[in-house]
Specification:
- There is one protein chain.
- With about 130 residues, the chain is an alpha+beta fold.
- The protein has two domains: about 5-65, no CATH class; about 80-125, no CATH class.
- It is built from four helices and six strands; from the N terminus they run ααααββββββ.
- It has helices at about 5-15, 20-40, 40-50, 60-65, and strands spanning about 80-85, 90-95, 95-100, 100-105, 110, 120.
- Strands 2-1-5-6 form a four-stranded antiparallel beta sheet, with no helix packed on it. A two-stranded antiparallel sheet has the order 3-4.
- Helix 1 (about 5-15) runs antiparallel to helix 2.
- The radius of gyration is 15 Å and the shape is elongated.
Length: about 130
């Protein structure tokens, strides 16, 4: 695979071939849009061609997981989509829990719930279905 279109097709086929839940397709669709908007297509093509594994997945991206560039599954770990205080959206960060309560979401003001609504990060409760 040497071009962006083939990379996208490969990621989509991994979801389909492994019968992964719809969350993977939704997240991939969002990530592809952001990658293309940022002009980072070549970066991911180069990463795939190099076949260099990434030890962590600090940004919680599903694309490198689907391409087997990392073993860190962002859907199964505690990564959430948030709206930052500065108005930027799409940052993927982790939730910090203490005794079952959410105590910190660094930089987050609002969090996107799976039903499409937004909630203030300070008002999140255990059991909220996060995207």
């Amino acid at each position: 695979m040497s071009n962006w279109k083939e990379i996208k097709t490969k990621a989509i086929s991994v979801i389909r071939d492994n019968n992964l839940p719809i969350e993977y397709a939704k997240r991939l669709k969002y990530e592809i849009k952001e990658i293309e908007k940022q002009g980072a297509n070549k970066y991911w093509v180069d990463k795939f061609i190099e076949n260099k594994c990434i030890d962590s997945n600090k940004n919680g991206l599903v694309l490198p997981f689907l391409l087997k560039l990392t073993s860190v599954d962002p859907i199964k770990t505690s990564f959430v989509y948030v709206e930052e205080k500065e108005g930027k959206s799409g940052e993927i960060i982790s939730i910090i829990l203490e005794n079952g309560k959410i105590v910190n979401i660094p930089g987050a003001l609002e969090v996107l719930l799976k039903d499409g609504t937004k909630k203030l990060a300070s008002q999140l409760e255990i059991g909220d279905d996060l995207y």
